[in-house]
Backbone:
């Protein structure tokens, strides 16, 4: 029997999520400590992000994720864009300190993901999913049936919990139809319809995920209210009959330029006053945390073209693309959402 999308679990799965989401943070720290001796250099050379990129020959996106992780851990301090070591970082992560723990990390230096991070920092290109050297990168792999099935199943079981948490906090009164862009199995569209009986939805997905979505929607018993439209969200016209758009755990897979383009595409398809929902893991506006989200961002930086964006970064992008952003609202297991209203053109 399919799960009841209106009944939450009896216990809190937070720790189970965090083990998986934070898995790669130790590898990024190991790369910085053992391979780069990054903290020793920064102790002598407090620097901006741009200066750090120039010194090491690194790209901006992965360095931003790395610095956010280290600030969230209180290893670094950020004073108006200049990064320097905190007392903790200076005492425990620099060569010459009697309390230096770099040798404790030396045995981890040859972990495959640690080496991956050295390449991602230099090239800004994602490594293969799960550190599998024989695999396609995540975006290409999603075009294959085997990987798309396994990945969609993973996101489906996550969405069964997160979808309910999102649905119970959203005010969708007066809204009629939702477009779940890049909606995977349709778990979020179904959850929102389950909690808002007046709502119908369309899941917009590429092949072969569309086939998986139709099957999953039918198994949940929502085929009468949730349909599937096929297309490439960057290239195809979005359906025009929806007054709510949802990006759930989608934008974090892409770089700034792609996120900006997706928001512009959404703006073109939404009516004036239409609602946009961004459901994701958010870094706070000053990029000091939360630590679990900063850790999750390292996984995204490793395996996708994206990262966890900050509330401030989303606000800037939303204004730029014709939306009026609302407030960030906390959800479940380190996720949350922002809504935005589509402003009229001109």
Residues:
């Amino acid at each position: 029997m399919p799960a009841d999308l209106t009944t939450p679990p009896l216990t809190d799965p937070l720790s189970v999520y965090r083990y998986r989401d934070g898995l790669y943070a130790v590898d990024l720290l190991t790369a910085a400590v053992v391979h780069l001796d990054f903290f020793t250099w920064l102790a002598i050379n407090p620097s901006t992000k741009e200066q750090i990129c120039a010194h090491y020959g690194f790209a901006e996106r992965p360095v931003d994720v790395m610095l956010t992780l280290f600030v969230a851990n209180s290893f670094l301090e950020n004073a108006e864009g200049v990064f320097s070591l905190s007392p903790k970082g200076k005492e425990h992560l620099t060569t010459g300190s009697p309390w230096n723990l770099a040798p404790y990390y030396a045995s981890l230096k040859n972990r495959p993901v640690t080496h991956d991070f050295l390449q991602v920092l230099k090239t800004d290109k994602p490594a293969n999913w799960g550190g599998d050297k024989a695999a396609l990168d995540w975006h290409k792999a999603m075009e294959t049936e085997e990987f798309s099935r396994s990945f969609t199943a993973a996101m489906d079981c996550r969405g069964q919990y997160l979808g309910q948490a999102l649905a119970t906090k959203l005010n969708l009164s007066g809204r009629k139809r939702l477009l779940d862009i890049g909606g995977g199995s349709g778990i979020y569209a179904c959850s929102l319809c389950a909690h808002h009986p007046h709502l119908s939805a369309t899941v917009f997905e590429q092949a072969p995920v569309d086939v998986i979505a139709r099957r999953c929607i039918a198994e949940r018993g929502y085929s009468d209210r949730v349909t599937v439209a096929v297309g490439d969200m960057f290239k195809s016209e979005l359906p025009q009959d929806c007054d709510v758009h949802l990006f759930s755990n989608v934008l974090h897979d892409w770089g700034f330029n792609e996120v900006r383009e997706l928001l512009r595409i959404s703006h073109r398809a939404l009516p004036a006053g239409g609602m946009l929902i961004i459901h994701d893991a958010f870094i706070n506006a000053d990029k000091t945390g939360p630590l679990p989200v900063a850790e999750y961002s390292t996984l995204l930086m490793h395996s996708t073209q994206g990262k966890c964006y900050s509330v401030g970064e989303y606000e800037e992008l939303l204004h730029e693309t014709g939306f009026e952003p609302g407030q960030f609202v906390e959800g479940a297991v380190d996720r949350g959402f922002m809504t935005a209203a589509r402003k009229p053109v001109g």
In short: The chain has a mean pLDDT of 93. Strands lie at 47-48, 76-79, 82-85, 177-181, 200-205, 226-230, 244-248, 275-280, 323-330, 336-342. The CA atoms of residues 16 and 102 lie 28 Å apart.
